[in-house]
Structure formats: C-alpha cells, structure tokens
C-alpha cells in the first residue's frame, strides 16, 4: 500500500499522518461527550487538547528515539521524520498524563475526575492509531499461515525472516483489544454515572491503564521488533510496572474513599 494518500502541489499527505489526525479528532470528540455529560467546562477540554497533544507527540517520539538510539545516532536527520513511523504509545501516555496532571494542578481542578472523562477517548484513539503501523509495515509479529496474516514487503522483513511472506498483524490484535477496553470503560463509566458512590474518582482511568497494559503485555510477546531492555522486552516491562502502580493506586483510593478520607490529587 502506498504511504502517500494524496498530494496538493508539492505537499504530500501521508496515510500515517491522516490516521493519526483522525485518531486525535475522534478521541477529542468522545472526550467532549463525557465532559458535557459530567457538566464540566468544555473549553477546558480544548485547552487540554492544545497542551497535551503536542506534548504527547514529542514524548512518544522521544521515547522511541531514546530506546532506539543506535538507529538514530548514525542518522540524526531521521529523528524528526515522524512520517516514517516511530511513535511509542507508552511515551505518548506518559506525556499526555503528565500534561493533564499539571493542567489540573494549575487550574485547581480534580485530575482524577478529568482523567476518568478522558480515558474512553484515549483508548479509542489508540485503536485507530494502530492502523498507522499497518501503513508503515512495522510492529508485526512472527511468521504465520493463518488466514488473517498480513503480507510484509521484503525490505521490511527482519534479518533471518526474509523467506517468509506473511506475519501476525500485531496492529490488528492491539486495535481489537483497545476496542474491547473501550467497551469496558464505557460500561464502567455508565455504571459510575448512575451509581457515583460505588467507586473513587480515577477508577475508570486506572482501569484503562491496567487493561491496556495487560493486553499489551500479551500481544508484545508476539512481536518481532520489540525494543529490549537486557533480556526483557521493554514494553512488557513497562506494562508490568504500569499494572502494579495503577492497581495499587486503585485499591488505595477506593480504600481511602470507604474510610471517609479526602482524596484530592
């Protein structure tokens, strides 16, 4: 598949960029719905989008470049060539989360309340964004003969796998898992809207982190191009840490809520 969708004069519009833009727009639209549902100020959502999106893109790229520094050290001009792929979702999540937290501290509003409202949109945006990997023919898995295996051009096949044509579509697996997580978050949000006293603020966001990370841990084990940290796949290591941190926070916040303590951060 061609990477360029169309051109206007000398300006090329890449499929990767269009997919990313679509993911962002839909994520903001879903978040807008939940912000209005909670009777919050929608102008703040627009401010958050203006701040968090560029930060998220920078941290997603920075994360990827740092863990693949050997590839970029010899060709630093490629660092800014985002259209060639190379955005780490863990980096994006870290950047967006930190931006939301800082914004909420400055505005003196509840980070956890806003994180809950934004979580469904974030995971749905991730589901759409996975198709950028399909366009760039990266983030694929081991060779396979299953009916849904995807053809990978010879130049993109890893060393030692040149003789294989079809590989596991990791992007598709993660997209489908993200949609499952999205459905669970929608149900949980509906339940907490109807029964707000059942769980502490932040539970939807923390469940998003736990579920996404659990799926990513499993799916990452099928990838051929995982970044490594010693003998560990980096994404799996980060996923385990995220599950532990989010799980402890969820248990602690709900315990404190039941105990009648004030939860402010």
Explain what this protein looks like in three dimensions.
By secondary structure, the chain is mainly alpha-helical. The protein has one domain (15-258). 63% of the residues lie in helices and 6% in strands. It contains nine helices and six strands; from the N terminus they run ββααααααββααββα. It has helices at 15-37, 42-67, 69-73, 89-107, 111-129, 131-136, 170-194, 203-220, 234-258; strands spanning 4-8, 11-14, 150-151, 166-167, 228-229, 232-233. The strands form three sheets. It has a two-stranded antiparallel sheet with strand order 1-2. Strands 3-4 form a two-stranded antiparallel ribbon. A two-stranded antiparallel sheet has the order 5-6. Helix 5 packs parallel to helix 8. The longest helix has 26 residues, at 42-67. The chain is globular and about 60 Å long. It starts with a strand and ends in a 7-residue tail after the last helix. The model has no long low-confidence stretch (mean pLDDT 90).
């Amino acid at each position: 598949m061609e990477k360029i969708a169309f051109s206007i004069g000398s300006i090329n519009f890449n499929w990767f960029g269009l997919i990313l833009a679509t993911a962002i727009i839909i994520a903001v639209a879903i978040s807008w719905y939940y912000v209005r549902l909670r009777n919050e100020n929608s102008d703040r959502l627009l401010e958050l989008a203006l701040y968090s999106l560029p930060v998220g893109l920078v941290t997603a790229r920075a994360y990827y470049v740092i863990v693949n520094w050997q590839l970029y050290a010899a060709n630093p001009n490629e660092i800014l060539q985002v259209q060639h792929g190379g955005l780490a979702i863990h980096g994006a999540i870290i950047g967006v989360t930190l931006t939301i937290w800082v914004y909420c501290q400055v505005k003196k509003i509840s980070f956890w309340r806003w994180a809950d409202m934004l979580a469904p949109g974030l995971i749905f945006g991730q589901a759409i964004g996975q198709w950028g990997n399909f366009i760039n023919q990266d983030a694929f898995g081991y060779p396979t003969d299953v009916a849904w295996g995807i053809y990978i051009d010879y130049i993109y096949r890893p060393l030692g796998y040149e003789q294989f044509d079809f590989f596991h579509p990791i992007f598709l697996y993660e997209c489908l898992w993200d949609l499952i997580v999205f459905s669970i978050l929608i149900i949980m949000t509906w339940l907490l809207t109807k029964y707000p006293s059942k769980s502490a603020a932040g539970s939807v966001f923390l469940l998003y982190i736990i579920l996404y990370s659990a799926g990513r841990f499993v799916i990452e084990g099928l990838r051929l191009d995982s970044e490594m940290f010693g003998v560990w796949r980096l994404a799996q290591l980060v996923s385990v840490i995220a599950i532990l941190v989010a799980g402890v926070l969820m248990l602690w916040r709900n315990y404190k809520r039941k105990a009648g303590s004030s939860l402010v951060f």
